[in-house]
Specification:
Layout: H1 2-9, H2 20-37, H3 42-67, H4 72-107, H5 121-124
Helix pairs in contact: 3-4
């Protein structure tokens, strides 16, 4: 009878000091260190930003569930929808700035609300081609790829 009790309470497949969660944390640590030492370190930034985003979602969900009578599932749904609304508002703001910049580049004239400091007369009279500096190549055997 004692044999059945030990088999029923032990974790199958692993020894007593090593549990599945410990193995998972060890593999996660090895993966993070391997990524840190590789040339793809920027992936850790995505990992970190995803973790921060989920912590924010958890915080919003906790606030919503504790302040209202919503269930946990609806709390997560509310938190994700709120975060998507904030991201959508930010993207709309950036799109508005982008369109104003495109209009400025096409016409050469800034809109009144984008002007913050007065510009000099010399800068206003320049054409778009005069804004750029033409650099001379420093090589003796330079052959341009394209003709003007």
């Amino acid at each position: 009878m004692a044999t059945f009790t030990i088999m029923a309470t032990s974790t199958p497949g692993l020894s007593g000091t090593l549990s599945w969660s410990t193995l998972g944390y060890m593999l996660l640590s090895v993966g993070i260190v391997a990524t840190l030492l590789s040339g793809r370190r920027y992936l850790l930034g995505y990992l970190l930003s995803g973790m921060i985003y989920w912590i924010i979602i958890e915080g919003i969900q906790s606030i919503v569930v504790n302040s209202t009578s919503m269930s946990s599932g609806y709390g997560y749904l509310t938190a994700i929808l709120l975060s998507l609304a904030v991201v959508g508002a930010y993207l709309g703001y950036r799109y508005k700035q982008f369109v104003e910049t495109l209009d400025t580049q096409k016409t050469g004239v800034e809109s009144v609300n984008r002007r913050t400091t007065p510009r000099s007369v010399a800068t206003k009279s320049r054409t778009p081609h005069e804004k750029y500096i033409e650099h001379t190549p420093i090589y003796n055997n330079y052959k341009p790829r394209f003709r003007n």
